[in-house]
Write a structure and sequence with these properties.
Layout lengths: L3 H33 L2 H19 L7 H10 L1 H14 L4 H17 L3
Length: about 110
């Protein structure tokens, strides 16, 4: 059984990995959009890069497992919308969403400390 500090550190590490994945997918989607001159890919690439910046600058300021658990419970609706959106635009954008869903399931499973 993990202590809450170790759990929060692992959660912060997984959030940083998630933001790096969002950045890489945003750059690749944006480059596809610029190459083929597709407006939806350009906007979705910019959206992915903005999500990456928001996730990277948002430190884990909440040091309570219950609040992290509450945030992760609410995030599934956003992930469902993003899967539908990125499957229509460019499937590369689904890779960080799948990792975020894995991070969410990890959080909900390990939150029972």
């Amino acid at each position: 059984m993990k202590t809450p500090d170790r759990f929060i550190n692992t959660y912060a590490l997984k959030t940083k990995v998630s933001s790096i994945l969002w950045l890489l997918s945003g750059i690749s989607i944006l480059s596809f959009g610029l190459y083929f001159w597709e407006y939806f890919e350009i906007t979705s690439g910019i959206i992915s890069i903005v999500i990456s910046i928001i996730k990277f600058t948002n430190k884990v300021t909440v040091h309570k497992v219950d609040r992290i658990n509450k945030f992760e419970n609410r995030s599934i609706h956003l992930y469902m919308f993003l899967i539908v959106f990125f499957s229509l635009v460019n499937p590369i954008g689904i890779i960080p969403i799948i990792f975020d869903i894995y991070r969410r399931e990890y959080t909900l499973r390990k939150a029972d400390i």
